[in-house]
Amino acid sequence: MSGILEPAEAQTPHQQHDGKARTRPPEAPAGRDGTVRHALLNAALEVFIERGYTEAGLNEIATRSRIPLGSLFQHYGGKRGLYLALWEEFREEQERRTAATLAAERDRGVDDPIALFVAGARAYLEGAWDNRRLAVLLVEDDGPAGIDALRRQWDRAWVRRNARLLEVDEKRRVGRVRVRVLTTVIGGAARELGDCEDEREAREIVDEVCGILTHLSAPPDARPATSP
């Protein structure tokens, strides 16, 4: 899980476990169908957190959601579909949050790449804290087949978006490495936030990380000289 600081390109395909692209599923409809999906995802999140993905049982998820097992299969196809739906929900919410923050900053006249990058990082980290139960689940090693490949795919996409936001020349290896390091810092901080139980501590972490990102985001020749 890394920092998503620019919205994804329109109509980006999803990936199945076999690596083939598929089109984005439609938004969950309002009414009864949307209520069923919401109940199933909430129950799946609870069971995944308590049991782990591997040990989670579909019967328990259906029982907690009070939705028939057949409806679970109809909507999500099984346990893997539930996990991927949760992952997608978190990813898209983080994208919406950071995109809205960047738009608001630009509307205020902010055009400095580093200031925009740090503002987006703060929004992402605050989202990781607000949705920490889901965030913690999604960085665990226990997940469905193919999830690691999906994570790597999106990590690469996030690094590219961050590079554009920071106006870094991706053709230069040093620029790519700098952006990858920054993105990794955000992802690591998001994991730490998942272990926080106190909002004050979480805010301290977010402030500290944003200060680090401000320093590291500047090109080497623009940083103040350090004392020997």
Automatic annotation (TrEMBL):
Keywords: DNA-binding, Transcription, Transcription regulation
Region of interest (Disordered), ranges: 1-33
Matches recorded under Pfam families: TetR_N (PF00440)
PROSITE patterns to which the protein is assigned, alphabetical: HTH_TETR_2
HTH tetR-type domain residues: 34-94
Record feature DNA-binding region, as residue ranges: 57-76
Biased composition (Basic and acidic residues): 15-25
Domain of life: Bacteria
InterPro entries: Homeodomain-like_sf, HTH-type_TetR-like_transc_reg, HTH_TetR
Gene3D superfamilies registered for this protein in UniProt: Tetracycline Repressor, domain 2 (1.10.357.10)
Protein's name according to its UniProt entry: HTH tetR-type domain-containing protein
